[in-house]
Amino acid sequence: MTEQKMKEEQERRKKKEMEERMSLEETKEQILKLQEKLLALQEEKHQLFLQLKKVLHEEEKRRRKEQSDLTTVTSAAYQQSLTVHTGTLLLSMQGSPGGHNRPGTLMAADRAKQMFGPKLLTTRHYLGLDTMSL
């Protein structure tokens, strides 16, 4: 009986070793698969980062272009408003024929007020068009 017990014990040990070897091999395979998956995810992360960088760059270019266009439009509108204001000033200096209860010629003091008017801020080009007093 002792021989039989020893054989059984040996078989159990062999079986246990075999299971351990299999689990080691399985663990190694799992590690390899997880490493491959990690590499794939790192590459995907890299690609997504590059894509984000490109999108942010395009957005910055678009924002700068819009800002430039807005500055150009604002500048043109400011120039136009100055032209209209100057033309109105010249017309009012010449006098308005009929209907406005004004004489055809202006007195010298009135003409000076219209020409030089109230002091305008030198920084008014930084303000919006609707806040300027023309």
UniProtKB/TrEMBL annotation:
<dbReference type="GO" id="GO:0003712">
    <property type="term" value="F:transcription coregulator activity"/>
</dbReference>
<dbReference type="Pfam" id="PF15991">
    <property type="entry name" value="G_path_suppress"/>
</dbReference>
<protein>
    <recommendedName>
        <fullName>G protein pathway suppressor 2</fullName>
    </recommendedName>
</protein>
<dbReference type="GO" id="GO:0005667">
    <property type="term" value="C:transcription regulator complex"/>
</dbReference>
<feature type="region of interest" description="Disordered">
    <location>
        <begin position="1"/>
        <end position="25"/>
    </location>
</feature>
<dbReference type="GO" id="GO:0006357">
    <property type="term" value="P:regulation of transcription by RNA polymerase II"/>
</dbReference>
<dbReference type="InterPro" id="IPR026094">
    <property type="entry name" value="GPS2"/>
</dbReference>
